[in-house]
Amino acid sequence: MSVRAEDWEVLGLEPGADLIAARRAHHRRRALYESDALATYNLLDDDERAAMLVRIDEAYERIAGSAAAATGGGCAEATWPAEPPPDPRAEPGASLRHARLTIGLSLQQIAAETKIGVAILERIEAEDFAALPAAVFVRGHVLQFARELRIAEAEGLAKAYLAKMQAQDDAQR
Questions:
Q1: What span, in angstroms and rounded, lies between the C-alpha atoms of 81 and 62?
Q2: What is the C-alpha to C-alpha distance for residues 161 and 135, in angstroms, rounded to an integer?
Q3: What are the tens digits of pLDDT across the range 68-127?
Q4: Which of these, 21, 29, 80, 96, could form a disulfide with 17 (CB 3.0-4.6 Å)?
Q5: Crossing angle of the two packed helices 154-172 and 135-148, in degrees rounded to 10
Q6: What are the backbone dihedrals phi and psi of residue 49, each rounded to the nearest 5 degrees, phi first?
Q7: Measured between alpha carbons, how far is residue 116 from residues 83, 137, 140 in Å?
Q8: How many angstroms separate the CA atoms of 23 and 11, rounded?
Q9: pTM for the whole structure
């Protein structure tokens, strides 16, 4: 299965873009055509939206397959998590990290978009509760972080994070 010129176009990429850029573009394009996306809600009916999602996925699969073959089977994906995602209720910080790595974003990129410091994002992912600010601020940071990653249950993840933070605080008293 070879990459077609239209594959790059479907993902909005220049031909020859690296696999990380392709993964990010795939994530962004899918978000545009999901059933709850406001950008295309009134423009497309359900069948057109579903057809576009199929085109996006097929284009990404061809590009990713081509890149994996060129790198000998996955060297370009070495930083991406190979394990399944952790349970967000049990490990909300690890769940955020997994989601971030899956779409190929760095903490610096998240910080630039959310205006949350890299150090705070690192502490959130590591669940370093003692080094984090007050719970009200942590809730807002976790919500912003999760929304930037397009996590569907951002509110639930923030609640799980705060519950775990509170449980550790109670255990230390």
A1: 20
A2: 10
A3: 555 544 433 334 555 778 888 999 999 999 999 888 888 998 998 899 999 999 999 999
A4: 21
A5: 150
A6: -65, -45
A7: 27, 11, 10
A8: 9
A9: 0.58
CA–CA separation, 159 and 148 (whole Å): 17
Query: Residue 36 contacts by C-beta under 8 Å, 6 or more apart in sequence?
Result: none
Residue 151, class by beta-carbon neighbours within 10 Å (0-12 exposed, 13-18 middle, 19+ buried)? buried
The encoded tokens of residue 117 equal 């410091």
The CB-based long-range contact list for 165-172 (8 Å cut-off, 24+ gap) reads 165/127, 165/129, 165/132, 165/135, 165/138, 166/135, 168/129, 169/129
Q: Which amino acid is at 95?
A: S
The closest of 104, 95, 88, 106 to 160, measured between CA atoms, is 88
Report how far residue 53's alpha carbon sits from residue 37's, in angstroms, rounded to the nearest whole number: 12
Cα gap 122→117, rounded to integer Å: 9
- Tokens describing residue 2: 């070879």
